[in-house]
Amino acid sequence: xxxxxxxxxxxxxxxxxxxxxxxxxxxxxxxxxxxxxxxxxxxxxxxxxxxxxxxxxxxxxxxxxxxxxxxxxxxxxxxxxxxxxxxxxxxxxxxxxxxxxxxxxxxxxxxxxxxxxxxxxxxxxxxxxxxxxxxxxxxxxxxx
Length: 144
Description:
alpha+beta; Aminopeptidase; about 35% helix; 7-stranded mixed beta sheet
């Protein structure tokens, strides 16, 4: 599947919230409980602060996901988020996006975090990420 990216804009809010709700609600709900208004407000704040880091993943001009990265003060590449509509998951798109990012930034420490109850951790391990720390809710992973 050939995907492309476009910059995220504020008008993507409804799509991003639907994506967050579909892909992360179960993890958030299990840990803190899901409050719809609170989650909308969190996303609005996140968009104000990090809009420049977000890219919408497109397949045939259809928005199918979001990919968010930035470089930290230490020079690490931080993968903040990769989230893809359920019907496009398990088709290699996320693996391909992260693999390309790792090749482009070879030699740069790449970090991410994943909910402890999220099975996507296995994908990150297949890509060579290892847990270097954990919080109460997340595994923090790195690839050197």
